[in-house]
Amino acid sequence: MVGRRHRLFSLLLLAAAIVEMAWTAYLGWRLPRHYVANHWRLAWVGLDVAEIVMLVTTAWAAWRRHARLILFATITGTLLVVDAWFDVTTARHGDVLQSALLAVFVEIPAAMAMFVVARGAIHEVRGERTLSSPRDALRR
After folding, report:
1. In a shared domain, residues 29 and 47
2. R_g (Cα) of the chain, nearest Å
């Protein structure tokens, strides 16, 4: 029964990917080249608040050496990648360089560090090694 559920879940994910591809193609064709967002500040501040919340929860999980570190570090890294993407792709003409530098030297390396921490925590949960500090996860 578990194998059947696993296959069904895999097929549902594949179907979702196909639907998403069609939707993305449609959006690429139909979205306007210029758009004014009514809640621009809310969108950016909301993303930054989500990053802050996840950085704090990741720090908490690392401090407590809790297995949730895997989830929290992965979410934090993903949010940092999303932030880098939107910083660069929504920057005004004169701000692209600053956004690209921030992405390349801060956001992407921080995201990669979070993914390395998550990977190290997976190994610790599996019992493959013991971490004495979150820094040990970065060495792996």
Report:
1. no
2. 19
